[in-house]
Design a protein that fits this description.
13 helices, 351 residues, two-stranded antiparallel sheet, single chain, eight-stranded parallel β-sheet, 35% helix
Length: 351
């Protein structure tokens, strides 16, 4: 499989060695309220995320009536109502999307969304989104994958609940459209998942298996696991955001609050700087430290010219500006060419 390894999303370059693309996933945490959705955009902007993401769907096209809630829905929304009814309260209209896209543009952040059907994809495309996101639940929906990929925009696909074989099938469908701009996100589709179910090392497996750029969509609580994914090479990360993780709703519990999002983005940028390059050599600021902390061969007694230097006459001490400790056996047994005072650095021209 051949995918692009340098992808442009708006004015952001995404790829190995590039800044991590941080997606603040507002999702449905607006609870169907456009004004609350705008405030979530403000949260993403204040935290300096690269993009804010929503979910675009028509309930009647997404689900049949009467489907029961998943267990994680019941934990956060109670037993009342079913999955279908819950989704109806979270659906945004075409006009809502227009308002939010315009607001995000005004605030200077990338607006994006996950389309759950082809019409929703077309709506987002007409709004001028620079990329698409496909959720884990639609990874095996090849018709939708093909339709979205055919827009020839960059696409991010979450891979929760998926086997390598299923991901391979989806990658082949994607490539059949001629689109090579794909980023896969490792993901565990529980809200939140147990830490033992996260398996961040699967990111490297996916890189090797499919040759794609790989990132991470995080549903764990807090930010440590997301930061660990960045340290392991994620080129993009996605994290749900909320004003109150204890609020009723399907995704609030697995989300971060505004201050945590700020800490997350700040932590990501720190890790990027710390990862640096792969060369192992002293950096410029270590050169003074080398002199202070390394050791040299020094005399521990006055040594007269012509005297044979014995083991008892020398030692290894700071500073590190003389002969390196590895040369002490070369010094021992040599004859002093000049008078050498106690605590003097021994150099080759003195023996």
């Amino acid at each position: 499989m051949t995918f692009d390894h340098d992808i442009k999303i708006g004015d952001k370059a995404v790829g190995k060695g590039k800044p991590v693309f941080v997606i603040a996933e507002a999702g449905v945490n607006h609870d169907g309220d456009v004004e609350k959705a705008k405030k979530l955009i403000d949260v993403a902007v204040a935290a300096k995320a690269d993009a804010v993401k929503f979910q675009t769907f028509k309930t009647d096209k997404l689900i049949v009536p009467g489907v029961p809630k998943a267990q994680y829905h019941k934990r956060t929304t109670g037993d009342k109502g079913d999955f279908t009814q819950m989704l109806r309260t979270l659906e945004l209209s075409k006009e809502d999307h227009e308002v939010l896209a315009a607001y995000a543009k005004k605030k200077g952040i990338i607006f994006m969304s996950t389309p759950f059907d082809e019409d929703s994809c077309d709506l987002l495309f007409d709004l001028g989104v620079p990329l698409f996101k496909i959720d884990s639940g639609n990874l095996n929906n090849h018709q939708l994958v093909r339709h979205i990929a055919s827009k020839q925009l960059p696409v991010i696909i979450s891979t929760g609940m998926s086997t390598l074989g299923e991901i391979e099938e989806t990658c082949n469908v994607f490539l059949s459209t001629g689109n090579k701009k794909l980023i896969l996100l490792h993901c565990t589709s529980n809200y939140p998942p147990a830490l033992e179910d996260v398996n961040l090392r699967a990111m490297e497996t996916m890189r090797l298996a499919f040759g794609t750029l790989v990132g991470y969509s995080d549903h764990t609580q807090g930010i440590p696991v997301t930061l660990a994914a960045v340290a392991l090479g994620a080129v993009a990360i996605e994290k749900h955001i909320t004003f109150d993780r204890n609020a009723p709703g399907p995704d609030h519990l697995a989300s971060v609050e505004p201050d945590e999002l700020k800490a997350l983005v700040s932590g990501v940028r720190m890790i990027e700087r710390a990862l640096g390059h792969s060369m192992k050599k002293p950096v410029e600021d270590e050169k003074d430290v080398i002199a202070a902390l390394r050791r040299s061969v020094v005399s521990v007694a006055d040594i007269a010219r012509g005297k044979v230097i014995t083991k008892e006459m020398v030692a290894i001490k700071r500073p590190g500006t003389g002969l390196a400790p590895k040369f002490i056996d070369v010094v021992i047994g040599r004859t002093a060419r000049v008078d050498i005072k106690k605590n003097e650095l021994i150099t080759f021209d003195k023996i």
